[in-house]
Amino acid sequence: MPAAMTKETFDLALQTAQAERAEGGGAVLPAGCTITLHAAHDGVSLVVGRVTAVALDGDTVKAQTGKGESVVLSLGDVFAVSVAGLPSPPSARKAGFLG
């Protein structure tokens, strides 16, 4: 079974997704960016995709998807978070010919 997610690792995933803190201690992802939560418990896996907002309440993760669905998971059952839709960093190289 995969290692359980810690609060510190979950916070790092939200920081990677450039999530902004919201009222009530939750976090909202920037427009166009979503996360996918990967969880497993007793050999059964669950993937919660297109999450746009999350909140931690102790060891409980409350996730809201772009379709308005709400999902509640145990943080100990979450083993991975993937991030999609981040804007690409500005290129250090300019387009065109050198010289």
Give a description of the structure:
This protein has 99 residues and is mainly beta. The chain has a single domain, classed as SH3 type barrels, CATH 2.30.30. It is 10% helix and 44% strand. It is built from 1 helix and 7 strands, in the order αβββββββ. The protein has one helix at residues 7-16; strands at 20-21, 27-28, 34-41, 44-57, 60-65, 70-74, 78-84. Strands 1, 2, 3, 4, 5, 6 and 7 form a 7-stranded antiparallel beta sheet that branches.
List the helices and strands and how they pair.
Blueprint: H1 7-16, E1 20-21, E2 27-28, E3 34-41, E4 44-57, E5 60-65, E6 70-74, E7 78-84
Antiparallel strand pairs: 1-2, 2-4, 3-4, 3-7, 4-5, 5-6
Brief descriptors of the model:
99 residues, mainly beta, SH3 type barrels, seven-stranded antiparallel sheet, globular
Instruction: Tell me the span between the first and last alpha carbons.
Output: 56 Å
Rounded to the nearest angstrom, the radius of gyration is 16 Å
Question: Helicity, in percent?
Answer: 10-25%
The geometry reads as globular
Oligomer: single chain
What is the CATH topology assignment?
SH3 type barrels
Strand % is: 35-45%
Q: How many strands, what sense, and barrel or not for the largest sheet?
A: 7 strands, antiparallel
What's the CATH class, please?
Mainly Beta
The count of helical stretches stands at: 1
Q: Would you tell me the overall average pLDDT?
A: 90
Residue stretches low in confidence (pLDDT < 50, at least 5 long) are: none
- Name the CATH architecture: Roll
The arrangement of helices and strands along the chain is HEEEEEEE
Number of strands: 7
Structure classification: mainly beta
Count of discrete domains: 1
